[in-house]
Amino acid sequence: MDNKTIKQKVKELTARAGFELPDDVLGLLKKAYAAENNKKAKQALGWILDNAGIARKYKLAICQDTGLPVVFVEASKLSASQIKAIEDGLAAGYQAAYLRPSMVDPLKRDRPSYRGSKIQIDFDPAISGIKISLLPKGFGSENKSQVKMFNPTASLAAIEDFVVEAVKKAGPEACPPFVVGVGIGSTSDGCLLLAKKALLGDLGKNNPDKELRNLEQRLLKKINALNIGPMGLGGKTTALAVKILKAPTHIAGLPVGVNISCHALRKARLIL
């Protein structure tokens, strides 16, 4: 795959992610709308669905916060020039689609640019091409990320309480209904990466790990009992889904990370 093609395909992917809410997210929003009895909450869900429809039809940004592009790349091999082509494609895609430039120097806070994506590369010898998953992460919800280094003897109940409390603290400021990503294990930074990666999963599919599947269901029930609801207006749906990934960790630790997405969970995939 030549670098020019990679850049062009990533450019197109960037626009698609910014304009089109994925079908799994839309499906859960429609389900929540049909089930909602709270008048204000139902109205808010209706606005959210209308906004998604307008964005898709007229090729407009789903949200004014067009996010920081987080990219997960899977490949058996990848060159430095191919990585640069991905970065160039992201910048070109944001500019061509009139998506807001939001990246700045963290201390100088100078003029925003289209450069500053976060790229995670995982090498897998079984992959013949290049798999690219794009997650434009808005910072209203990103700012509500939480990590806690539990003692290895911590109970599952304590972990559940931490996740629910993280969502409670996020409240209406993170634009619910949420999709809540949880990472368990690895390191302090690794569990947060797992939590973010969990947001890429198909929201309509059950977790293949029975223990994690049960934990997701319990957490979703507890989170929706918070009655924060769409845009903080109360109602049945504070979260659309909870998705969890885990990884091995050290015998002396138990890291847990929470990464929340607002209702505009933008994600798009590409296989080259």
Structure commentary:
With 272 residues, this protein is an alpha/beta fold. The chain has 2 domains: 3-137, no CATH class; 139-265. It is built from 8 helices and 8 strands. It has helices at 3-19, 23-35, 39-58, 80-96, 139-142, 156-170, 188-198, 210-224; strands at residues 68-75, 118-123, 130-137, 146-150, 178-186, 239-249, 254-261, 268-271. Strands 2-1-3-8 form a 4-stranded mixed sheet. Strands 4-7-5-6 form a 4-stranded mixed sheet. β1 (68-75), α4 (80-96) and β2 form a beta-alpha-beta unit. α2 (23-35) runs antiparallel to α3 and α6 (156-170) crosses α8 (210-224). The radius of gyration is 19 Å and the shape is globular.
Summary, kept brief:
This protein is of the alpha/beta class. It has 8 helices and 8 strands; from the N terminus they run H-H-H-E-H-E-E-H-E-H-E-H-H-E-E-E.
